[in-house]
Amino acid sequence: MTTDKLIEPEVAPAHPTKTKAFLKGTLAMMPLTIAVVPWGILAGSFAIEVGLTPIESQAMSAIIYAGAAQLVALGMVKAGIGLWSILITTLLITSRHLLYAMAMRSQISPLPLKWRLTLGFLLTDELFAIANQGKLHRFDPWYALGGGLSFYIGWNLATLLGIIAGNAIDNLGELGLDFAIAATFIALVVPTVKKPSILVCVLVSLTLAVVCAVLNIQAGLLIAALSGMTAGVLYAKVTGEDKQAVKAETTATQTEETL
After folding, report:
1. Are 136 and 12 in contact (CB under 8 A)?
2. Is 205 exposed, middle or buried (0-12, 13-18, 19+ CB in 10 A)?
3. Taking the CB of residue 73, how many other CB atoms lie within 10 A of it?
């Protein structure tokens, strides 16, 4: 016997225990939290090196909460570049979060305002990567909150460690801690490459990002991201991959209903 039931395809059904979902999100984020520790240490120590006070350095991570933007902004401050140039550059670097938010809009928009504001603030590359790995690989706000909050705490603790180390150890930035940035993004990207269209997206984005970096184009990150997504979508449409994905998702949904 079947019943007509409205199924929300984007948001997972209510988890039996919110605490369990929260802890699962925390656990899923743990490897990425550990991986970003050197990055956080670098951000904290560099802030001290630039001349910020310990409170200002910690507040930067607590309020701005954007590692790449923080490091670039600190470098520009050290070089004596003007405020407006710093703001524009930071905006361009963090513009990818707008793309993340647009991609998650259908999942976030049904939630109350307090949830939207909280998850919006906690949204990072890492949270976006694990957001749909909750129950049945669907979006669970408590799962996302656990991952996002644990990463936020880890980032700020790493920054604090960098502030302490920056006051005690000279030239901490010469230890190669910035490699953690590249390592973290590699760890985020590689597991997602499961379809040819995603591989096309990654290769196009990577190529354009390198070209824009060589040509010193400040909007290079946004250009690379948009071009990569466009290439991936076009490839999926031309090869029929998108139709196959929809068919597979429909079959999976019907199987879940049967179970």
Report:
1. yes
2. buried
3. 21
- In sequence order, what are the residues at sequence separation of 6 or more whose Cβ sits closer than 8 angstroms to the Cβ of residue 46? 71, 74, 75, 162, 166, 173
Q: What share of the chain is helix, strand, coil (3-state, %, to 5)?
A: 75, 0, 20
Backbone angles phi, psi at 139, to 5 degrees: -75, 130
Low-confidence ranges of the chain (pLDDT < 50): 1-9, 14-15, 252-254, 256-257
pLDDT digits 0-9 by tens, 236-251: 888 887 666 555 555 5
Across the chain, what does the average pLDDT equal?
Answer: 81
Neighbours of 177 (CB within 10 A): 19
Range of the domain at 56: 18-192
Task: Please report which residue ranges of 169-219 form alpha helices under DSSP H.
Answer: 179-189, 196-214
d(CA 148, CA 127) in angstroms, rounded, equals 6
Asked if 34 and 161 sit in the same domain, the reply is yes
Q: Which residues of 17-52 are buried (b: 16+ CB within 10 A; e: fewer)?
A: eeeebbebbbebbeebbebbbbbbbbbbbbbbbbeb
Summarised one tens digit per residue, pLDDT across range 199-221 is: 898 899 889 989 988 988 877 77
Asked if 155 and 248 sit in the same domain, the reply is: no
Residues 233 and 127 reside in one and the same domain: no
Q: How far apart are the first and last CA of the chain?
A: 13
